[in-house]
Amino acid sequence: MKKTFIITMSFICAVLLFTGAAHAQDNQKLAQSGMKFMNAILDARTASMGEAVTALDGNSAFLFSNPASVARQENLFNGAAGSMTWIADIKYLYGAATIAPFGGDYGVIGVTALSVNYGDFIETIKGDNADGFYELGTFRPYAFSFGLSYAKALNDKLSLGGSVKYARMSLGASVVAVDKNNSYTRQDNVRGVMAFDFGLLYRTGYKSLNFAMSVKNFSQEIKFEKENFQLPLTFRIGLAFNAVDLMENLDKDMHSFILSVDAVHYRDYPEQLSLGGEYTFMNTFSLRAGYNYPADERSYTVGVGVKRSYENYGLGVDYAYTPFGIFDSVHRITLNFSL
After folding, report:
1. Which of 108, 107, 84, 82 is nearest to 95 (CA)?
2. N or C: which end of the chain has fewer CB within 10 A?
3. pLDDT mean over 275-301
4. Are strands 234-242 and 227-229 parallel, antiparallel or unpaired?
5. Burial of 300 (0-12, 13-18, 19+ CB in 10 A)
6. CB under 8 Å to 130, separation ≥6 — which residues?
7. Residues 262, 235: contact at Cβ < 8 Å?
8. Looking at residues 258-270, what average pLDDT do you find?
9. Which DSSP string do the residues of 293-333 spell out, in sequence order?
10. Does 256 have pLDDT greater than 90?
11. Positions of E strands within 71-127
């Protein structure tokens, strides 16, 4: 109980610090990172709980949030895949898989992959015609990443995890010179970088209360032309608790009501507080909701999930809906499989 009290108070102090700093830094933390696709929330369950999943045990899709969350995987194999159409019609495809050989005695190994299609753009160059430019055709920027993860439960309370990732982004080939014969000299605008994620998840011992921390997208600086930048580094501290533990009249095998909260520190925009809730009936049907504060165009998310366990395998599908203000709403779908 003493340890739980210390952890809880530390978390509350962190929440107050982060939310208080959010207003003071509104005009200071702008455009300080690149390759923003590395910070996208992909998994439908994660999104529908307002991204407040740092302190939850999860499936392979949780490798994108906190690699320590897969350390207690009970199945030999788990796989997840999904898609998302982001604002401005940016399309994401992603997948993750984990394997726990020898019953997880030697840890859990995971892999992740992410692909981003930004669509087609018209390439132009300055010209002396009436329009002031010439069209040179179309180009298609793209980005991708893949990673390798490892997680291990050190004892019945503490789990650790880490990921090493390679991220690559192409902005297409641009014209840098035109000779007297109107021949173009082009330059490829492609950059790649290694990045790292770290996480821990701690079971406090007080009922189902979990405490967790994660660091995402730690990398060196890279450069496009004249500007140096780093990946969108993100720190999270989270708590999660199954409220059914406090309700003596409810059957825990029939009902689950998880409440979670994350305090989030970003490199390039103000700190946020993320809140999430998930009600599950008969370990099969789930209703979820989340809220982020402060936020400009998006604030709340909702979602549903269905999963079924059979003799040798399990199947599941999750959906999340995020209204995005002046932009189109974002829909996420994630499929899960385990054996």
Report:
1. 82
2. N
3. 93
4. unpaired
5. middle
6. none
7. no
8. 91
9. ES-SS--EEEEEEEEEE-SS-EEEEEEEEE--TTSPPEEEE
10. yes
11. 77-86, 90-99, 108-117, 121-126
> CA 38, CA 127: separation in Å to the nearest integer?
36
| DSSP 3-state of 244 | helix
**φ and ψ at residue 18, rounded to 5 degrees:** -70, -45
Q: What is the pLDDT of residues 217-239, one digit of tens each?
A: 999 988 887 778 889 999 999 99
pLDDT of residue 288: 98
Q: Determine the Cα–Cα distance for residues 184 and 258; give it in Å rounded to an integer.
A: 59
Write down the pLDDT at residue 29: 53
Domains of the chain: 2-338 (2.40.160)
Dihedral sign from CA coordinates of 55, 59, 65, 70: positive
Task: Quote the pLDDT of residue 28.
Answer: 56
- Element holding 14 (H helix, E strand): helix 2-24
**Residue reference for tokens 């997948």:** 95
